[in-house]
Design brief:
The chain is an alpha+beta fold. The chain contains three helices and three strands, in the order H-E-E-E-H-H.
Length: 87
C-alpha cells in the first residue's frame, strides 16, 4: 500500500537519500507541481532529477526514483551513506 507524502516530507526524504552529498530542491514555477532535485558535492553537480507531484507525493514512487538516482551515482563512482525509505 502506498502512502501520500507532503511536499516538505518529500524534500526531507530526498535530502537524506543522498548523504553525504547535499541535495538542493526547487520548484521551477510555483503551482506547476514539479520538483527539481540536484545533488552536489560542494560546488560540483553530481546529478539532477525532475519529479512530478504524483511521483514525489507517492511514497513508493518516490522511493523507486531515489533508489534509481542513488544507483546511477554509485555507478559513477560516488559513495553514498546507507539509506532506506522511512516507514
Amino acid at each position: 500500500m502506498s502512502s501520500t507524502l507532503r511536499f516538505n516530507d518529500a524534500l526531507l526524504i530526498a535530502d537524506r537519500a543522498f548523504r553525504p552529498f547535499q541535495c538542493v530542491a526547487w520548484a521551477p514555477q510555483p503551482g506547476s507541481g514539479e520538483l527539481n532535485i540536484s545533488v552536489i558535492d560542494r560546488t560540483r553537480l553530481l546529478g539532477r532529477t525532475k519529479l512530478s507531484a504524483s511521483t514525489y507525493s507517492d511514497a513508493e514512487q518516490l522511493a523507486s526514483v531515489l533508489q534509481q538516482s542513488r544507483a546511477a551515482l554509485s555507478e559513477q563512482g560516488y559513495t553514498l551513506e546507507p539509506w532506506s525509505m522511512p516507514a
